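I hope you will forgive my troubling you with a question about protein structure. The full record is reproduced below for your convenience:

——
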Amino acid sequence: MQKQEYVSAYSYLKYAYSLDKNNKEYKYNYVLALSKLKPTIEIQKELFNIANQEEQDSAKVAAQFKISKWKNRILQSYGDNYIEQTAINNGIIRWDTSKFPIKIAIINNSEKSVPQYYNTEILKAFSQWQSSIDFLKFSKINSAKNADIIVQIEQIPSNLCDGNVCQYVAGYTYPDYTGHTLKKMLIILYSTDPYGRYFSDKEIYNTILHEIGHSLGIMGHSYNSEDLMYMAQNNNDSIYAKYKSSFQYLSSKDINTIKLLYKLAPDITNNRNFDTEGLIYPPIILGTSKDIANRKLKEAQNYVKKAPDMTIGYIDLAEAYSNLNKPKEAIKAMTKAYELSKTASEKYMSSYNLASMYLENDDTKNALKYAQIAKQINSTDEINELITNIKIHKNH
């Protein structure tokens, strides 16, 4: 059959395959037809699913060949990147470009004021991202309520030092989402280091520059020290030691990665009616959900090793275990996150997630306990709905 004949026969082959998915001839010809069609998200997904079926047959081989061809062409067209490190445990999280500009707000929740250069360097960091990526647009607003990305300046926790040795990060990023809806990205920036000293202009600029990468959807780290999104090794002061010496810049791999990321169809975004035209089905590039979860587990374990007193690392570790269907390990890691929580936002995150995990494991007593702790911190619609679900589950 010629290409046009396969295209014309697609609907018939799809119907035949749906009637008898064990028929190897139907299946093989259906795959050939899929391979000739315009690669919409639906077509890409169907081919990927067949390529990853357990049964080894000619249809699976043909689907794998097409997927591999697509992947190689896409990766070659974007140049060197670390796209495999971008996923969150639930898949791709990013902003919908049709809703740009991304609204940013800077809020000081610290007990004391910070130098003016903090604000200056924060805005300069956003400016570098915008000038480096042609489609990125940011807009500063004064209201955190209406912001997409919030840079929240907070007091640094008090127990990050063992004698004269302190291990800490100047900031970190937390994605706030429910289901498949991205609400906001919260960048926590500490007002001082553990010794009470203000960060330098370079430290503020470089820390925020790195965290903006996370807030745009790069939820992991590069393994190349030349990249902005590399996570440096620990020393006696900070895992971001390189940020003290000079102003940092986006590498070509950082730029290539964000450009490719914004061609992947998001699993979590701020617009559930986003246009999928021309987008790529993420598993074609990232692999199966198990592949993603294993990489995220490695990433979280690496983070926890380098920053053993940071709540966010244990939250990531718990989510990775959860996605690998390891509930005991997930609850243990999230409990550690709860114990390490210093700020209200950290305590809310960890207690809410603990409540959800205990509910999934039919432990309504502990689920309700942690849900009520979260509610005392912030009585959101999200936590009230979770408490209702726990009580319904308990009564059944």
About this structure: The chain has a mean pLDDT of 89.
